[in-house]
Design a protein that fits this description.
Elements: H1 4-7, H2 24-36, H3 43-46, E1 51-55, E2 58-61, E3 66-69, H4 72-75, H5 84-94, H6 106-115, H7 121-124, E4 127-131, H8 136-151, E5 156-159, H9 168-172, H10 177-180, E6 190-193, H11 213-223, E7 234-237, E8 240-241, E9 247-248, H12 251-263, E10 268-271, E11 295-298, E12 310-314, H13 333-349, H14 351-373, E13 377-383, E14 386-391, H15 402-415, E15 417-418, E16 420-422, E17 428-431, H16 439-459
Parallel strand pairs: 3-15, 5-6, 5-7, 7-10, 10-11
Antiparallel strand pairs: 1-2, 2-3, 4-12, 8-9, 11-12, 13-14, 14-17, 16-17
The structure holds pyridoxal-5'-phosphate (PLP).
Pyridoxal-5'-phosphate binds near residues 137, 140 and 271.
């Protein structure tokens, strides 16, 4: 695996700005979109650009500007925009068979043959898989339903900062109050406990001397008959939190959560929708701590840009009856062909290694330097190519500073770099580039980011 393997996948001239973004065509198309589509449209409000073509880790807008893409479709495009192998497989499948409910098809069985050997070690020997509707949210819905059905219980424990989707059940276990407050009541009996967000430890402790007080709290609510939390059907966790701000919990925290779930006989759902598929430098984020999920959710990156969603679980949970979770687009055949090509590409190029190396050798060291240089970068964290840079008004009080982050995001796209924003207070810049990013593009992108911070800091 070397950069050479990925060099030809991108627009060679990236980044190129021919007209200050958003250019005239982008502005016009945004106006039309605003007129026609719901106010719920989200991403173009922060990055008001209309895109036309993507290649690898680069993307072109309708005005001819070409950007380096550190956003990667919110963690979908791990094998790059329009990966030629994926495009080819999808095209061929389009000409044969496009839709087939859950009937067996050659491509479906091929995909199962590719996916199962890649599952976490202990899960793969006992795994059952189930294709659900195409979104990640539906994988979460089905994982929770499966746990509830098996446990004959209703509650779920989730983590502060956790994001699991927007449908009713998935939103219930999502932490963000803004997303939920106008849609209550959602599923009852969801309890949130602290995640190992060490930069803002609510117990004011420091890892590793903290005895993982956050995990101890989880243990306490399961153990104490007066905690008010009845035995839940499941615990759901991201091994590296995504929307919460690219928070990579210490491995020991994840190991503790697994142990506690075992001790109290609660199935553990590991949501790998964003952190999986090589993003963090392993095939699955939970492999860093070598734990085995009882149920695992997979989506985003698996379809190589096409929507596909699947849960994998220990076969002892496969007790539900025929039709327990039906849907018309469970396992779309064309997306399955794309997924076969995606998984083969990942294996052929050992994409997890490339993600790990770029994170360890380029992103984190360079961003640590930027943190030292900037008064406003409070924390740099992440794993592989799932990186968070948290901005604060001052490093001592750690007061979040979302406004500066929006300005940095704008300065970046004006110079040819697309980035994402997230975190508890929307004060975290998030990098989720396609994993086929080259070192050269990584360095150029980070330099643009550094210049943008300087520009915003001096003009603020
Ligand atoms: N789970 C995690 C960890 C996610 O990051 C997301 C989306 O960002 C989801 C679930 C929901 O996936 P979707 O947006 O495809 O419904």
């Amino acid at each position: 695996m070397s950069d050479k393997e990925f060099e030809d996948l991108h627009f060679p001239e990236a980044p190129t700005i021919v007209v200050k973004p958003p250019g005239p065509k982008s502005r016009e198309m945004r106006q039309i979109q605003d007129r026609i589509e719901s106010t719920a449209v989200s991403y173009p409000k922060a990055v008001p650009i209309a895109f036309e073509e993507g290649k690898g880790a680069t993307i072109k807008d309708v005005d001819g500007n070409i950007y380096i893409d550190f956003f990667g479709g919110a963690g979908v495009l791990n094998v790059g925009h329009c990966n030629p192998e994926v495009v080819n497989a999808a095209k061929q499948q389009m000409e044969k068979l496009t839709h087939c409910l859950d009937f067996p098809t050659p491509v479906r069985l091929e995909l199962e043959g590719e996916l199962i050997p890649l599952l976490p070690k202990k899960l793969r020997d006992n795994a059952k898989i189930f294709f659900v509707a195409p979104t990640g949210s539906d994988a979460v819905e089905s994982a929770i339903k499966l746990a509830k059905f098996n446990m004959k219980r209703v509650g779920v424990i989730s983590f502060e900062g956790g994001y699991h989707g927007m449908t009713s059940g998935a939103l219930s276990v999502t932490a963000n109050k803004k997303f939920k407050r106008n849609f209550l009541p959602l599923t009852s009996e969801v309890h949130f406990v602290p995640y190992a967000y060490c930069y803002r430890c609510i117990f004011k402790r420091e890892y590793p001397d903290c005895d993982l007080e956050c995990a101890r709290y989880l243990e306490h609510i399961l153990d104490d008959p007066e905690s008010g939390v009845v035995e839940p059907a499941a615990i759901i966790i991201e091994a590296v939190q995504g929307e919460g701000g690219s928070i990579a919990a210490p491995d020991k925290f994840i190991i503790e959560v697994r142990k506690i779930a075992n001790e109290y006989s609660v199935p553990l759902i590991v949501d790998e929708i964003q952190a999986g598929m090589c993003r963090t430098g392993r095939m699955w984020a939970c492999e860093h701590s070598e734990i085995t999920p009882d149920i695992m959710t997979i989506s985003k990156g698996i379809g190589g840009g096409l929507p596909l969603s699947v849960i994998a679980f220990d076969q002892k949970f496969d007790t539900w009856e025929k039709g327990a979770h039906v849907g018309t687009f469970r396992g779309h055949v064309v997306a399955m062909a794309a997924a076969v090509a995606t998984l083969r590409f990942i294996k052929k190029h050992r994409l997890w290694e490339h993600a790990r190396k770029l994170g360890e050798e380029i992103f984190l060291p360079r961003l640590e330097e930027l943190k030292e240089e900037s008064k406003y970068i409070g924390d740099v964290r992440g794993r592989g190519m799932m990186i968070g840079i948290e901005f604060v008004k001052d490093k001592k009080s750690k007061k979040p500073w979302p406004e500066i982050v929006r300005q940095v995001q704008k300065a970046c796209y004006e110079k040819g770099l697309i980035i994402e924003v997230g975190g508890h207070y929307s004060n975290v810049v998030r990098f989720l580039p396609p994993l086929v990013l080259t070192r050269q593009l990584a360095e150029i992108g980070i330099n643009i980011f550094a210049e943008s911070i300087k520009e915003v800091e001096t003009t603020w």
